[in-house]
Write a structure and sequence with these properties.
binds zinc ion
């Protein structure tokens, strides 16, 4: 299970995963999330993708 924490703060920030993909995604800080074990803030879409990836990986690791 991936622990997701809502970002706090004023103004806007970029989604790390979107910007890694070359997509410039700026969101209000209150719409961004921090993921335990990951650096940076992520938009709701990317949080879903990361959770799916982490979930799939977890299932695989368990055999
Ligand atoms: Zn994103």
């Amino acid at each position: 299970m991936v622990k997701v924490i809502r970002c706090t703060g004023e103004g806007q920030g970029p989604c790390k995963r979107c910007s890694d993909k070359g997509k410039w995604n700026r969101n209000w800080m209150s719409f961004l999330y921090m993921i335990e074990g990951y650096e940076g803030c992520y938009c709701a879409e990317c949080v879903k993708e990361i959770q799916a990836e982490a979930g799939a990986k977890g299932v695989k690791e368990r055999g």
